[in-house]
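Milestone 3.1: sequence recovery, worked example.
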């Protein structure tokens, strides 16, 4: 998956169309690398005990935590939009359009 993200694409004439994704800048690549590292570590540690695979439950827990703190909780706790400032902005826009 990481190799396909970083691969360049060219037009039929040989001209460069897309240079590919910088793997160090892409958020999906970061999480993919983390999952690969976690899986590799767990495979090595599973030689010691079969119960090490239970640590794989960390990944869904981490994803749930990130979704809750970044997306869901702020959505629940955000108040209604400030109508007074919105009304002021609309009046200013209306004055500019009218002039």
């Amino acid at each position: 998956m990481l190799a396909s993200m970083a691969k360049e694409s060219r037009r039929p004439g040989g001209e460069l169309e897309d240079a590919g994704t910088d793997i160090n800048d892409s958020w999906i690549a970061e999480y993919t690398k983390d999952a690969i590292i976690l899986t590799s570590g767990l495979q090595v540690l599973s030689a010691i005990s079969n119960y090490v695979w239970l640590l794989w439950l960390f990944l869904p827990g981490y994803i749930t935590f990130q979704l809750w703190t970044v997306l869901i909780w702020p959505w629940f706790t955000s108040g209604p939009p400030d109508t007074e400032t919105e009304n002021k902005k609309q009046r200013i826009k209306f004055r500019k359009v009218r002039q």
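The chain has a mean pLDDT of 78. The first strand starts at residue 9 and ends at 10.
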